Amino acid sequence: MSENTSRDTDVMRAAQLHAALMSFGVDAHARVLAARLVVANEQNRAAQ
Predict the structure, then answer these.
(1) Residues 4-43 as b or e (16 or more Cβ within 10 Å = b)
(2) What three-state secondary structure class fits 28?
(3) Higher pLDDT, 18 or 47
């Protein structure tokens, strides 16, 4: 899987997480968690 495709997948998952958390009224926390998910996955890929 290419880097861009992996990042796109991460962003899609983060967006789904964000949407799910928003439904519980935690928009600010959802944004932080979604961003951390993408960054953590990028760091893991860079470390490999």
Answers:
(1) eeeeeebeeebeeebeebeeeeeeeebeeebeebeeebee
(2) helix
(3) 47
Q: If you ran DSSP here, which 8-state letter would residue 22 be given?
A: H
Q: Please list the alpha-helical segments (H only) found in 1-48.
A: 3-22, 27-47
Residue 1: is its pLDDT beyond 60? no
Name which of 2, 1, 36, 45 is nearest 17 in CA terms: 36
DSSP 23: T
